Amino acid sequence: MIYPDDREVAVGGHTIEEDKSAFIRYKNHPGDVVSYFAQIYATNYSNNSNVYIEKDGSLFDHIGLSQTLIKPELQINLGRDPLSLGVLGVGYNWEKISSTRYGSDHRLHAWYILGQKQWVINNTNIIVGGRYEKNVLYKAQFNPKLSVAHKFTPDFILKASAGTGFKTPDFRQQFLSFDNTMVNYFIVGAKELTNVLQEQIKRGLLDDNEEVRAFMVTNELIPEKSIGMNLGLDYTLRQNTGFKLNLFRNDITHLIESYSLPLVSKNGTGFFSYRNVNKVFTEGAEFSINHRFNRFFTINGAYQYLIAKDKEVINQIKNGEIYKRDPSTNVSSPVRLSDYHGLFNRSKHSGNLSVRYFNEKISGGAMILAKYRGRFGYFGLNGFNDGNNILDDDREFIKGFTLLNISVNKNLGKYFDLQGGIENLFNYTNKVYMPNIFGRIYFINLNFKL
Fold first, then answer.
1. Which of 33, 271, 284, 359 is the most buried (most CB within 10 A)?
2. Given this model, what pLDDT does residue 33 score?
3. Is the pLDDT of residue 31 over 70?
4. 31: exposed, middle or buried (C-beta count within 10 Å: 0-12, 13-18, 19+)?
């Protein structure tokens, strides 16, 4: 439905998505000390939607989006001993996005230089590296990293690493203005949010009130910076079974996160955009296991436990500065630390489990993959609002779910690979709060390899 001039008009239509990519790599080893590779990756995503008035079949709206990314890179390996190599690299990112919603195309480019040196001393492996990056819109940034791994036995390795990170807002987060009328969601870059909301008001799809205008402000995304530490171990139990455990901690300033606006248009469209969260930490553990039963069957499993919280919110709770109001009783009370569940859209528990079959005689195989996402907070879920904009109530959680995918593949000679399958076999959907999950999808791919 659309609502021009406060009239309800039924509409229908269709959406066509295309996702194309190409990757080429050239390797050479001109001498005993030097080897190098040059590669280029290019991808294009396009989405075209047509919306028609059902009454007379006339075209009401056409929405087109095209996003292109090109990434060339050159990497040189220096050193005769493979255990003490030095690495130098340079790369460039070029990106363009165009849409029927823009008056002109948006372009972005950045270049980077990276270096790395490795030493192996007895059973200890030390790697020191760094990356210098310059984005056309932001100041240059250098990020160092140190990694150490020690092999206590052939079956037991302990690893540790520390480093800094830098992430600039991409085009999607800055300028995207994508309205999928058929699925009823609107993804809006931070810089476009005010314009989109004004247009929605003009078309009668949103009311002009304080709740809407609270989001019609200057939205400038700041690059994300982080300091990360990891401690992990690899353990091999017998020949066919391996375990990995990793503990991590990241302290992030200006975290770039997606969020849902607590707004729904008169035709049922939800809105998503991007914002910075000033001071955040994430910490937790990751565990994985793989086991080969025989030459045909392999099982792999992984689990993640995650805590992600806003440091400023924690301090405000400790100082008694944040209250919550129960919508059913209108009674207010101070928020306790035990009430605060962390950032929205983060699952404390998640994991996956896959079983693979491959037969060399027929050059083909199959896989069953289950992906689990635990419950997670959603801002404004079912209209819930306790007045503080933080995740502190069980009524703000979407239940966990599992997606099941199945696929089969067959090698067709030296250069071709055929793959087909079904994603989301049980057709799980949540169109209002997770419109990116489209339901059951059947696919077939033919891959060509040089």
1. 271
2. 87
3. yes
4. exposed
DSSP annotation of 9: B
**Cβ–Cβ under 8 Å, residues 47 and 178:** yes
Question: Cα–Cα distance between 228 and 224 in angstroms, integer?
Answer: 13
Tokens 């056309």 correspond to 136
Q: Length of the chain, please?
A: 450
422 in Cβ contact with 441 (< 8 Å): yes
Q: How far apart are CA 144 and CA 40, in angstroms?
A: 25
Residue 427, by phi and psi: left (phi above 0), alpha (psi -120 to 50) or beta? Answer: left
Q: Tell me which DSSP letter residue 2 carries.
A: B
180-197 CB burial, b ≥16 within 10 A, e <16: bbebbbbbbbbbbbbebb
- Alpha-carbon gap, residue 269 to 178, rounded angstroms: 12
Closest C-alpha among 278, 52, 271 to residue 176: 271
In a 13 Å sphere around the CA of 78, the CA atoms on its Cβ side amount to 7
Asked whether the beta carbons of 91 and 72 are under 8 A apart, the reply is: yes
Going by pLDDT thresholds of 50, 70 and 90, the confidence category of residue 131 is very high
CA distances from 297 to 53, 356, 359 (A): 53, 6, 9
Question: How remote is the C-alpha of 16 from its chain's centroid?
Answer: 22
Phi, psi of 139 (to 5 degrees): -65, 155
Average confidence (pLDDT) over 120-139: 92
**Within 13 Å and on the Cβ side, how many CA atoms surround 281?**
10
Backbone angles phi, psi at 395, to 5 degrees: -75, -5
Given a cut of 70, whether residue 176 has pLDDT beyond it is yes
Q: Which of 302, 279, 282 is nearest to 230 (CA)?
A: 282
Closest CA to 14 of 161, 169, 133, 182: 182
Here the tokens at position 393 are 């109530």
Residue (of 203, 191, 174, 178) closest to 47 by Cα position:
178
Mean pLDDT lowest for which of 54-68, 136-150, 224-238, 240-254? 54-68
Q: Angle at Cα 167 formed by Cα 164 and Cα 173, nearest 5°?
A: 160
55 phi and psi, to 5 degrees? -65, -45
CB 287 within 8 A of CB 244: yes
The two three-digit tokens of residue 177, written as one number: 């203005």
Reduced to 3 states, what is the DSSP secondary structure of residue 42?
strand
Question: Has residue 4 got a pLDDT over 60?
Answer: no
DSSP 399: P
Please give the single-letter amino acid code of residue 62.
H
**Cα maximum dimension of the chain:** 78
Taking alpha carbons only, the member of 205, 184, 177 closest to residue 51 is 184
| CA dihedral over 368, 369, 374, 375, signed as positive or negative | negative
DSSP result, 374-385: --EE-TTGGG--
